[in-house]
Amino acid sequence: MKFAVFGAGGVGGYLGGRLADAGHDVHLVARGDHLEALRSDGLRVESVAGDTTVDPPATDDPADIGACDYVLFCVKSYDTREAAADLDPLIGANTAVVSFQNGVDNERWLADEVGADHVVGGVAYIFSTIAEPGTVEHTGGPARFVYGELDGRRTDRIEALDDALSASEGIDAVLADDIDVERWRKFAFICAQAGMTAATRVPLGELRETDASWTMYRRIMEEVCAVGRAEGVELPEDTVDEWLAFASDLDPEMTSSLHYDLTHGKRLELDGLHGSVVRHASDVGADVPMNEAVHAILRPWAVRNER
């Protein structure tokens, strides 16, 4: 099948490398030094699940690629609207645009641009980044990718995607029964992990050792779950407990991409995380003081780094 990976960074590059290694027709959309390295030397995936090097075509112009079976949409949430406006050359009658991004707003923004019939929801559980131009490093996490039609149907295209991802080495592929539940489950965890490591500037281990901080970590997740449930998402009652158990076993030096971007002067995904929680909470009349606090603490840094 023909795939375009729009945003071939830590998540997209990993997916593209694995799918190309499995023999699929993969095209990478990237920019800057990373694009030049992809063109000259190919893509190298350095992973705890095994390394690979592939040489798929790479471009910054979707018109070079043409219509695809699937577009794996992996840009940062703050780039969603702008990038979605460039998708038209990749869209055929049956193309599925699969969002593997942080946050719960991206699918709606994509639908506004390409039409809801083309959009598929997705969730990525992987710790990976661009180690250097042309190289994606997967340092941990299960490399689990969860996806599903927004209306829950088992369509031919979602089953074909499931077959392709399931057959690719290094990918733990999961076809979800209810992708909204999966998106909000991850949203709860990422808001806690990203928000607390970025706001405190310390890794997870120090948060776990500090009672007040660990309590706030939990409360952030509780607030996100409450908002999701108020919007009709049937999140399991044990969602927070499961995530706390998961976080308790993670490497104590673990931080987050939000922490990395903050400390390296890069643009922050704050609006797609805690800013989104605050907006959704306002819509349903929920109180989210912990998420409001994180948003208020990090907002000046988001403005500074964007400049």
Note the beta-strand portion: 15-25%
Helix content: 40-55%
For this structure, the quaternary state is single chain
The value of Rg in angstroms is 19 Å
- What would the CATH topology of the largest domain be? Rossmann fold
What CATH architecture of the largest domain would you give?
3-Layer(aba) Sandwich
Task: Please identify the top-level CATH class of the largest domain.
Answer: Alpha Beta
SS elements, strand count: 10
- The SSE string, one letter per element, is EHEHEEEEHEHEEHEHHHHHHH
Largest sheet: 10 strands, mixed
Instruction: Provide the structure class.
Output: alpha/beta
- Number of folding domains? 2
- The CATH fourth-level homologous superfamily of the largest domain: NAD(P)-binding Rossmann-like Domain
CA(first)-CA(last) distance: 40 Å
Number of separate helices:
12
Global geometry: globular
- Chain-averaged pLDDT: 97
Question: What low-confidence regions span 5 or more consecutive residues with pLDDT below 50?
Answer: none
Pick out its properties.
307 residues, N-(1-d-carboxylethyl)-l-norvaline Dehydrogenase, domain 2, 10-stranded mixed sheet, 12 helices, 10 strands, 22% strand, globular, coenzyme a biosynthesis, oxidoreductase, NAD(P)-bd_dom_sf, EC 1.1.1.169
Which helices and strands appear, and what pairs or packs with what?
Elements: E1 2-6, H1 10-21, E2 25-29, H2 32-41, E3 43-47, E4 52-54, E5 58-59, E6 68-73, H3 80-84, E7 91-99, H4 106-114, E8 119-132, E9 135-149, H5 156-166, E10 172-175, H6 179-200, H7 204-208, H8 211-230, H9 239-248, H10 257-263, H11 274-284, H12 289-306
Parallel strand pairs: 1-2, 1-6, 2-5, 3-9, 6-7, 7-8, 9-10
Antiparallel strand pairs: 3-4, 8-9
Helix pairs in contact: 6-8, 6-9, 6-10, 6-12, 8-11, 11-12
